[in-house]
UniProtKB/TrEMBL annotation:
Residues 34-59 are annotated as: Disordered. This is HEAT repeat domain-containing protein. The lineage of its organism: Bacteria, Pseudomonadati, Pseudomonadota, Gammaproteobacteria, Alteromonadales. Residues 41-53 have a biased composition (Basic and acidic residues).
Length: 304
């Protein structure tokens, strides 16, 4: 296969960018002891979940350099393919290798674009192709994954977004199994994410966290109290709407359980609706429970 000047130039460009990447890495790299500790942790995590949740790098410079390398590799591979003449004798394995290289680079680019578009669901791109099937067919694997995810949700060693992503994945696992509840998905897990949301200065994270927690398949009166507080006190109207939906979600979940919370939940919703002086709270709850049939049902449950 002929190698033209363009191929050589691009190859040299890749080498230059790669060297720059290593230079940037070594100027910002953590200490050796930290790397050893991190490698031990990654090894344990890999054995349990077969995936590392840690990003390759949070350094914007490295990320930009990696993007340049990917683009150059794609261009070089495409040039190699275009330089194959009609009468040139090129073996099938060579062609296959080049085509697979293009596909792999493009897939990696799509994964990175997915992460940039919605980092919360970046974990999905890291899952093995047979993840759904393993969750359904391998109870030991499922238990290990769910316990690891719950541990990650509660751990302060991960970023807020990584912890929220773990809750999202745990919820996804529950849906894959067609279950309405799982022992790992409990108030402690949901409450810890609500704790992060209520103190976060990142409005996007806060909204995503409350969107997920207000629909959590967990029936617990403590969530009713927390959603009531958000409904009354938050400055964001969309967040308050989510909180009102969370209250109604808790009501319907309490109806289907035997934990005895249905009376308390009904009393709380009626009290908010009937006694609030906040027109926004009144309006949001009226949309949920304002018709007479629903109000009568709440009154009935509130009386035990």
């Amino acid at each position: 296969m002929p190698i033209n000047k363009e191929s050589i130039a691009i190859t040299l460009s890749i080498a230059a960018v790669t060297i720059a990447s290593y230079g940037a890495f070594f100027t910002t790299a953590p200490s050796t002891s930290h790397l050893q500790s991190q490698n031990m942790h990654d090894s344990r995590s890999s054995n349990e979940i077969d995936r590392s949740d840690a990003p390759v790098s949070n350094n914007p410079l490295l990320k930009d350099l990696q993007t340049q390398v990917t683009a150059l590799k794609l261009e070089l591979t495409n040039l190699k393919l275009s330089n194959i003449g009609p009468n040139e004798n090129v073996s099938s394995p060579d062609i296959k290798e080049l085509v697979l290289a293009v596909i792999e680079e493009k897939e990696q680019k799509e994964i990175e674009e997915l992460r940039d578009k919605n980092p919360l669901y970046g974990f999905y791109a890291d899952l093995p192709d047979d993840y759904d099937l393993r969750i359904k067919s391998d109870p030991a694997f499922t238990k290990s994954v769910n316990e690891e995810l719950r541990s990650k949700i509660l751990s302060t060693h991960y970023t807020d977004l990584e912890r929220l992503g773990a809750l999202s994945q745990l919820q996804m696992n529950m849906f894959i199994l067609n279950k309405s509840q799982m022992p790992e998905y409990d108030y402690e897990a949901v409450g810890s994410i609500l704790d992060l949301a209520t103190v976060s200065n990142d409005e996007k994270f806060k909204i995503q966290a409350i969107e997920i927690t207000t629909q959590a398949p967990v029936s617990d009166y403590r969530l009713v109290e927390r959603f009531s507080t958000i409904l009354k006190q938050d400055n964001n109207d969309y967040v308050r709407t989510l909180a009102s939906q969370g209250l109604i979600n808790q009501y319907y979940q309490a109806k289907g359980t035997k934990n005895g919370d249905i009376q308390q939940v009904a009393e709380q919703i009626l009290s908010l609706y009937q006694n609030t002086s906040d027109e926004k709270v009144k309006s949001l709850l009226h949309e949920m429970v304002g018709d007479e049939v629903m109000l009568e049902e709440l009154r009935k449950h509130s009386q035990g």
